[in-house]
Amino acid sequence: MTYIMYWTRFKKGIGVVLLDNNLDKQMDRGIDMKEIEIRQIIVVTDGKSNIGGNPITAASEAYKQNIIVSAIGIMDEKASDDDSLFEVEKIAKVGGGVWENTMIKNLGYTMHVVTQKTMNKTIETVVGKQLKEIMGAELDDIPPKKRSKVIDYMDQLSEEVSIKCCIAMDCSKSMKNKMSTAKQSIIELMHSLQGRRGKSQVAVIAYPGKNGEFTALISDFTEDIQRLKDKIFGLKAGGTTPTAAAINRAVALINGENEQELEEIIINSEPLLNEGMV
Predict the structure, then answer these.
(1) Which residues, including other chains, have CB under 8 Å from residue 76's CB and lie 6 or more apart?
(2) Among 62-71, 130-139, 192-201, 267-276, where is mean pLDDT lowest?
(3) Distance between CA atoms of 259 and 241, rounded to whole angstroms?
(4) Phi, psi of 118 (to 5 degrees)
(5) Are 201 and 165 in contact (CB under 8 A)?
(6) Where do the VWFA domain residues begin and end (predicted)?
(7) What angle do CA 26, 29, 34 make, to 5 degrees?
(8) Is the distance from CB of 126 to CB of 160 less than 8 angstroms?
(9) Which helix (H) or strand (E) holds 249?
(10) Which region holds residue 226: left if phi is over 0, alpha if psi is between -120 and 50, else beta?
(11) Phi and psi for 35 in degrees, rounded to 5?
(12) Sign of CA dihedral 44, 47, 51, 56
């Protein structure tokens, strides 16, 4: 028997998978998907962070804790800020995730694509390490017949692995005319995940928060679409862009830390941050 450690987060810590020296037997036996979950933060923003720390450092620290940070940059149809788009790319690179730039009207689809790409990337890493250990070869190096079987196996895993996805939604002043579409995009992501066999939970953190706070917990992790709809209904835009604080808050939520601080903040008809505070 051979033991191999891989970085995918297990619910009870970093896990060990037992492998034997036969690829077919290993795939037939498979991995217990109930014990694995992909932990991901998706940062959604239309501008560069301007307060509350360095989001690139925050994403790097998250990745060290086995939390993937992906990012989506919302582009303006008239012009785009190269600095903000570069920041989106850097956040995802150091966070071990993927990044996409999109128009606001395509945000829902892009969220789904980013989630799927992250899941596939994680599974490829896990299976790739197993192949290297068992056969001493990369996926592209093994015979076509066995390669096809491995790819089918990876497709199966993508349907069964558990997902914990925290959306860090930019609610700064520049998002004012985009919030309606942004809220609908979160619901679209939930719908796209419902057909999977594995558990799919989504949480939402808004940044900035209300009353001068950097963040607000809009919804803890849930699989209930109606519950999420009710929670995000009152999202409003206004204020600065504390992206690092949002990433740090998402990490704490995923890790189950600081439960008292993470008590849900009720969103009412008031803006998350008054424009006069900026």
Answers:
(1) 46
(2) 267-276
(3) 24
(4) -65, -45
(5) yes
(6) 167-266
(7) 120
(8) no
(9) helix 243-255
(10) alpha
(11) -95, 0
(12) positive
What DSSP assignment string belongs to 118-158?
HHHHHHHHHHHHHHHHHHSS-GGGS-HHHHHHHHHHHHHHH
What is the DSSP-derived secondary structure letter of residue 88? H
Separation CA 48–CA 53 (nearest Å): 12
* Average pLDDT of span 72-79: 78
Separation in Å, CA 253 to CA 14, 21, 216: 18, 39, 12
pLDDT digits (tens, 9 = 90+) for 210-266: 888 899 999 999 999 899 889 898 888 888 899 999 999 999 999 987 544 444 433
Q: Which of 173, 128, 160, 119 is nearest to 147 (CA)?
A: 128
The amino acid at 50: N
Angle between helices 55-64 and 243-255 (to 10 degrees): 20
Residue 121: name the closest of 84, 144, 93, 142 by CA.
93
> HEC states along 90-103?
HHHHHCEEEEEEEE
With pLDDT > 70 as the criterion, what percentage of the chain qualifies?
74
Beta-bridge mates of residue 219: 204
> What tokens appear for 66 in the block?
């086995």
* Residues recorded for the chain: 278
Q: Both ends of the chain: CA-CA distance in Å?
A: 60
DSSP string, 194-230: TT-SS-EEEEEEEES-STT-S-EEEEEEES-HHHHHH
What is the torsional sign of CA 260, 182, 161, 66? Answer: negative
